[in-house]
Amino acid sequence: MINRLSTFLYRIALTSNSKVIFENHDDRILFLKDKLVAADQALSVKGCGVDIINFQPIPKSSHQNTLVFIFVGRLLYDKGIIEFVAVAKKIRLLYPTVQFWVLGEIDTQNPAAIKETELQDWITQQYIDYKGFVKDVRPYLAESDCIVLPSYREAIPRAIQEGMAMGKPAISTDVPGCREAIEHGKNGYLVPVQNTDILFEYVKKIIEMPTAQRIAMGEYGRQKALHELMIASSPTRYLQ
Questions:
Q1: What is the model's pLDDT at position 236?
Q2: Which residues span the domain enclosing 171?
Q3: Mean pLDDT score of the chain, rounded to an integer?
Q4: For the chain, how are helix, strand and coil distributed in percent, rounded to 5?
Q5: HSE-CB for 191 with a 13 A CA cutoff
Q6: Do residue 81 and residue 181 come from a single domain?
Q7: Which of the four pLDDT bands, split at 50, 70 and 90, describes residue 42?
Q8: pLDDT score for 65
Q9: Residues 6 or more apart from 34 whose CB is under 8 A from it?
Q10: Using CA atoms, how far apart are residues 195 and 90, in angstroms rounded to an integer?
Q11: Contact at 8 Å (CB) between 236 and 49?
Q12: Is 10 exposed, middle or buried (0-12, 13-18, 19+ CB in 10 A)?
């Protein structure tokens, strides 16, 4: 539900638009339900697209022979970083060689940002391997085995789109945007928001599944990215 002030502002902003484009189906339904847009005015596309030429499957290097779960995004509570670390802590007690990489930085201007002391504690306790902010995520995605983004809400997460294009399975939350990128059991898994127990079980499932099955899930995601998410298809949808 959108609050009254937001409803008022959206109505002013959108009333003269001939078309309004949504990056996921759920947001389109919400705006139609609240009568902020008309049915013939509202279009939905699956995200802003991913460059499937720049993001292609790359074999892991021979020295990287352990499983790697990777979180890519700003270090905000609502991105699910707390849940990611909580699961990393539990998993590493059972599987000490499994690694959990974090790419991103603390957005100090955002009230939802984690504290620097929290991050330093996670690093000291060796729950995560913190890579910081990187301009090019591809080398890190290439060395990883599964994308994990337990976000509370997204459009369609760029990190998941890019991971899919590189043939990586993903675990995310069953919320608008994420559920449009992930087909549960096909190219990854969807879990309830803030449920670390179920998130733990699916991370464990990825660890214990045969390598061939994990690769097949990633390939399914790659094909889904090619057919539904590639960047060339988004402008075409806008113009139709």
A1: 47
A2: 68-228
A3: 87
A4: 45, 15, 40
A5: 24
A6: yes
A7: low
A8: 82
A9: 1, 2, 7
A10: 14
A11: no
A12: middle
